[in-house]
Amino acid sequence: MNKFINFCANLNFLQLVSKPTRYLTNKPSTLDWVFVNDEHSISELSYHSPIGTSDNVVLTADIRHSFDPLNMQTNYVSYRVVNYDEITNIKWQTLLRPLEDPNEIWNLLHATVTSLSTKHSYVGQ
Predict the structure, then answer these.
(1) Which of 15, 52, 119, 124 has the fewest CB atoms found within 10 Å of its own CB?
(2) Its GO CC terms (predicted)?
(3) Considering the entire predicted model, what is its pTM?
(4) For residue 121, pLDDT beyond 80
(5) Three-state DSSP class for 122?
């Protein structure tokens, strides 16, 4: 559990649940978490009575956003100019086998796919 908490802290996530969310016998505990990376993105986190015979409280939140659908511009990626021969001829095992670190494997895979995507597609509106 500490690894998870440290992971969230390293990402500057804030945990907003500050009260117990489960009442089992005489042991209140916090089971629910609401993480945000901007403390102003949620204006109110509310705790409500459990539903039915549940021992968990109900949480509700008001989410703030700056989404304006009238001024939204939609982009799409077109892959009509893809050179499938180049993509299918990549020797993935030869390329990735020498690497042992999962991060190195991911970085190489991501860089290769991103490069091919950039080379063989365009963004339209």
Answers:
(1) 52
(2) extracellular matrix
(3) 0.48
(4) no
(5) strand
